[in-house]
Amino acid sequence: MTDSPSSTFPAQALYVHIPFCSSKCFYCDFNSYVSSEGVRIAYVESLKQELAMVHDEYFGVSARPELQSIFFGGGTPTLLSISEFDHIAKQIHALFDVNGDTEWTVEANPGSADREKLSALHAVGVNRISFGAQTFNETLLQVIGRLHDASDVENSVRYALQTGFKRINIDLMLGLPDQTIEDVKESVARALQTGISHVSAYGLKVEENTPFYKWQQEGLLHLPHENVEVEMYEFVRTYLNERGFAQYEISNFSLPGEEARHNLNYWDNFPYLAVGAGAHGYMGGVRYENERSLAKYHERVALGTRPVAQAHVVSANEAMEDTMMLGLRLKSGVSKRHFARLHGREVDEVFGILIEQLQQRRLIEVDDESIWIPSQYVEVANEIFARFVGYL
Ligand SMILES: C[S@@+](CC[C@H](N)C(=O)[O-])C[C@H]1O[C@@H](n2cnc3c(N)ncnc32)[C@H](O)[C@@H]1O
Ligand code: SF4
Q1: Per the CB 3.0–4.6 Å rule, which of 18, 22, 217, 307 could disulfide with 77?
Q2: Res 6: pLDDT
């Protein structure tokens, strides 16, 4: 049996989850809590211990492996105080080789990152900031439970640029309650005016255990019609493409060379380390999920054990299906050489019949080097991925 990719390639990406928010947005089910300073300080201590545990387990106590990317996601990582952030950063620097080539992204909520904090992040090696703007429409921002207004987004990006950050992303959301095409046009235009180099545009997903879900059940959530959401997405794609922001993944657009390396690592189905409550990692051929609750997370770490709640050994077949599903998200698609390098088998030998069927229906395109979804079918990409799941 061929090993799954994460058992034969070293991890070069690290995800750190910071599960704190000032308040919960009405659509969001990411693992985050509204917590006090004491809770944050305790969390930083556990995180440092967990970082040492994963480092020692996968690389050995004395190794100092190089990281190509680090991603602090949340929650709201910028809710950490400067000294809390410094403690975590020092531990990462002690355990790993973080150098000028390492992409280090921190997610930030507009309004939660002042000049002093942004300078402190820059000083420890952070070189990319991702701001969750969602929309620039003031009414909509309130409807979805955001604490900031549109001018906070503009000011935050300005501070980040003045601090020296050259790589800045803005997240936008499409298909929000009563959102119109005009709202989307204004939001994307104002986002670009700030001088960013990357945009992520996500269609709203109504997640269970959120106020939006409850309101939808009660018939109180007025979402735009499906066709309108498609029109919004098409508008964003065209608008950004015309302004030099190439679409490189279903939801992601960037100026040349500004693609998020950390996320490319996921879509290439390479392994990655992940630490923090509720974090998901992929190491040594195993996908794992940490304890979501802070109490359980601390309890496990205090006992000197990894806080893993669930682990799944990925079979060689499953890993090949994952490589197709993830890689087809990319505009460039799945490289045949990359597939062979990861799995030790040719993609045509493994998925030849399915690829031919999809190709006949023009749902995918194939040449000597790659397999990709043509841009007119990106909206039905999920149905195309689904064909690869459980195929082997
Ligand atoms: C994990 S959040 C963290 C970012 C940061 N806390 C913020 O909100 O500004 C990352 C992004 O996921 C997107 N997101 C969160 N929940 C979503 C949902 N239910 N549907 C679509 N996008 C969502 C938002 O665009 C958000 O900025
Ligand atoms: S969207 Fe961001 S700020 Fe809002 S609850 Fe989720 S993680 Fe927190």
Answers
A1: 18
A2: 58
Which ligand ends up closest to the CA of 202? 1
State pLDDT tens for residues 345-359: 999 999 999 999 999
Distance from Cα 133 to the centre of ligand 1, integer Å? 9
Alpha carbon nearest to ligand 1 atom 21, residue: 204
Residues having CB within 6 Å of any atom of ligand 1: 27-28, 30, 73-74, 76, 107, 109, 132, 134, 171, 173, 202, 204-205, 207
List phi, psi (to 5°) of 173: -120, 140
Give all strands (DSSP E) within the chain, no chain letters: 13-18, 69-74, 103-108, 128-134, 167-174, 198-203, 246-249, 252-254, 273-275, 280-283, 286-290, 308-313, 334-335, 365-366, 370-372
All structural domains of the chain: 5-267 (3.80.30.20), 330-386 (1.10.10)
Residues present in the chain in total? 392
Q: What is the pLDDT of residues 163-180, one digit of tens each?
A: 999 999 999 999 999 999
Q: What is the pTM of this model?
A: 0.96
Task: Please indicate whether residue 109, judged by its CB atom, sits closer than 6 Å to ligand 2.
Answer: yes
What number does the ligand 1 atom closest to the CA of 212 have? 19
